[in-house]
Specification:
Largest sheet: 11 strands, mixed
Number of helices: 5
Number of domains: 2
CATH class of the largest domain: Mainly Beta
Order of helices and strands: EEEEEEEEEEHEHHHH
CATH architecture of the largest domain: Sandwich
Number of strands: 11
Radius of gyration: 59 Å
């Protein structure tokens, strides 16, 4: 069985043993931990021993005073026999028997050790959003608008101009006739002619343009 010995300064070592198949062992000042260390320099949950291929590692759990290997503060320590490890100010000894060493020797061990700085850099790298590569969008050149065929425009303009000319002509004829009719009516009244009459009406009815002799006599009698 793996052996862990915890030695608080001024006290005798306190040994712990557990099965090699144990996946995780919690270590801290709180009595809820698998290994309880009654020392002010140890946090409530200070660190954990974790089973990996090839043995165990010791991982700091954001403790106040950290864990160290040969006085170097670490985030993760690969546990080896006779390593000089401290949990806070407490000496931590880890030992495997020869049989246990032979058993884990067949496992593929991958180093997990990390300093505080390395762990901090890994955390920043994972928490920083990955910048997406800019995608170059190729935009096709804008094609100019296709103008109307000149022949269509010409025919449209000519048609509009023709209608406008016809309208002006009709208005001119109507104005001319109105003026002529007004002048004709005035002359007829001056000549003593009575009744409703107009130039167009007289022409269509074959009436004389001047008053008859009877109309002239009646006007003279008056």
């Amino acid at each position: 069985m793996p052996r862990v010995a915890i030695t608080i300064s001024g006290k005798s070592p306190q040994p712990y043993r557990f099965e090699l198949s144990t996946k995780k062992v919690s270590i801290g000042r709180s009595e809820d931990n698998d290994i309880t260390i009654a020392c002010p320099s140890v946090s409530s949950l200070h660190c954990t021993m974790e089973r990996v291929d090839g043995g165990y590692i010791l991982r700091d759990r954001h403790s106040t005073n950290g864990i160290s290997l040969r006085d170097d503060e670490m985030a993760v320590i690969d546990l080896r026999n006779d390593s000089e490890i401290k949990v806070g100010d407490v000496k931590f000894e880890y030992t495997l028997s020869d049989e246990e060493l032979d058993e884990i020797d067949d496992e593929d061990f991958v180093p997990h050790a990390k300093t505080i700085q390395e762990a901090s850099e890994d955390y920043e790298e994972k928490s920083t959003p990955t910048k997406k590569a800019k995608t170059n969008v190729v935009t096709a050149p804008r094609q100019p608008a296709t103008p109307f065929p000149p022949t269509v425009l010409a025919s449209t303009n000519q048609g509009s101009g023709g209608l406008y000319s016809i309208a002006l002509f009709v208005c001119g004829v109507a104005a001319f006739y109105a003026g002529l009719d007004h002048s004709y009516s005035g002359k007829q009244r001056d000549a003593g002619r009575k009744g409703d009459f107009s130039l167009l009406s007289d022409i269509s009815k074959g009436r004389p343009a001047l008053p008859s002799e009877e109309e002239s006599k009646e006007k003279g009698a008056e």
